[in-house]
Each structure stands twice: as structure tokens, then as C-alpha cells.
Amino acid sequence: MKTTEYKPISCAHYEFYELAILQHRRLRLAWNADAGNVVYDHVVTPLDLKTRDGEEFLILRDAEDPGNTTELRLDRIRRVELL
């Protein structure tokens, strides 16, 4: 169930995530959970990109919880840094 309308990201940003996945590069991401004001800032390993119901997601592994993977909606990402 959608909490807010998805806002597509630019092709350049999408390609940035694709390249980080292919090169096995870690990222420092800051994102909002759902539509709330809580901002998360974590080092992650991007694993894959996925599209579902017209929304795009980054599948990632958080460095603080390497045993689990998470789906992060791309328009929730506020800041990204290549490590």
C-alpha cells in the first residue's frame, strides 16, 4: 500500500545506483522512512534495483545489520555519498 505518491528519480541517479551495484561500492545514504520526518543515515551495500507497482526500490544491506536486506524507495533518499 502506497503511503505517498512516488516521485521518479532522474535517469542519472538511477545509473549511479546501477554502477555502485556493479562495482560493489558501499554508500552512505540518508533517507526518510515513509513520509515521516525521521531521517536515517547509514553505510550500506547496494545489491539490486527493483520496480514494483510503478515505484523504484534499492535493495540494500545495512552495515549495522549485515544479516538482513532492506528495500528502500528511491525517492526517499535525501543524500548519497560513494565510499
What does this structure look like?
- Strands 4-3-2-1-5 form a 5-stranded antiparallel sheet.
- The model has no long low-confidence stretch (mean pLDDT 92).
- It has one domain: SH3 type barrels, CATH 2.30.30.
- The chain has 1 helix and 5 strands, in the order H-E-E-E-E-E.
- It has one helix spanning 11-22, and strands spanning 27-32, 39-52, 55-62, 65-73, 77-82.
- The longest helix is centred in the N-terminal third of the chain and has 12 residues, at 11-22.
- The protein is 14% helix and 52% strand.
- The chain is mainly β.
- The radius of gyration is 12 Å and the shape is globular.
Q: Could you provide a short overview of the structure?
A:
This protein has 83 residues and is mostly beta strands. Helices cover 14% and strands 52% of the residues.
